[in-house]
Amino acid sequence: MAGTAASLFWIALCAVAAPLIAALVPRRLIPEVVLLLALGVVVGPGVLGLAAVGEGIEVLREFGLGMLFLLAGYEIEPRELAGRGGRRALVTWVVCFALALGLVGVVSLTGTINAETAVAIALVSTSLGTLLPILKDSDQLDTKLGAAVLNHGAFGELCPVIAMALLLSSRGTLASIGVLAIFTLLAVIFTLPSARLRPGSRTHQLVIGSSETTAQITVRLVVLLLVSPWGLAIAFDLDVVLGAFAAGFVLRRALPEGDESLEHKLGGLAFGLLIPIFFITSGMAIDPRAIAANPLVC
């Protein structure tokens, strides 16, 4: 099994190679995310066995996942999500989930599917984390298409997490509702101090004044913001995606008009280090031989 240092080398090499290869493809038809996943498959245990996910790399992977969904939550406009586009996206997800339950129920009569509810939830789960870098690279985030993808993707990520908590949790439905309500309440309370970071406030001036020094206080605050709701979600035995999304919403509330300097720094940290590690290690978890042997297994 590859050691941590060797694994980090191959992961770093894949992270550098992916954008270079993507740039060589005419019209950049292959997204970098796809190449990161594919290179992860190649260097992972399922093919060459050059890299493995040990405890240290797993921590970086989890941070990459958290940062990815924090940025996704930050990109979503709360007013847009609560508006017509958001309501349409929610209705779309509910209708799709009902159709998925019906379809899986019919197919289960043949005995080819077990855990029908889990399969139905999987069918209506989106991959907003995968789509976000693609939208960002193609400058589509600020378009109508980008807004629609973010709205549908947000509900496609959050609703399955809530559905799993309510329908698949060992706590029972009523207890799960209580847990989700408490988590939501604590997340809302956590947003209250963000008002102090509004432009013009004394706290805002103090934070901004230290943001260009070695303190890098804004980046450190975002890391604290990420791990707090994230840790809260783990404590309540909820999906960490829920905590990361909550952190992104809190950050958007604190900076409703955005902050170019902070976004630039977070982009370097997230897309330069953490997010590539997440995608590469996700590819490393794929075993091509197992898929080839059972391509239709649910």
SSE arrangement:
Layout: H1 4-24, H2 32-43, H3 55-75, H4 78-82, H5 84-108, H6 116-123, H7 128-137, H8 144-167, H9 173-191, H10 202-210, H11 217-235, H12 240-254, H13 260-284, H14 288-293
Helix pairs in contact: 1-2, 1-13, 2-13, 3-12, 3-13, 5-6, 5-8, 6-8, 7-8, 8-9, 9-12, 11-12
**CA radius of gyration:** 20 Å
Number of structurally distinct domains: 3
Helix-strand pattern, N to C? HHHHHHHHHHHHHH
Shape: globular
Question: In this structure, how is the largest beta sheet organized?
Answer: none
Structural class: mainly alpha
Uncertain runs with pLDDT below 50, 5 residues or more?
Answer: none
The total of helices stands at: 14
Oligomer: single chain
Q: Report the portion of residues in β strands.
A: under 5%
Q: Helical proportion?
A: over 70%
Report mean pLDDT, rounded to a whole number.
86
Number of strands: 0
Can you describe what's shown?
The protein has 14 helices and no strands. The protein has 298 residues and is an all-alpha fold. It folds into three domains: 100 residues, no CATH class; 86 residues, no CATH class; 85 residues, no CATH class. The longest helix is centred in the first third of the chain and has 25 residues.
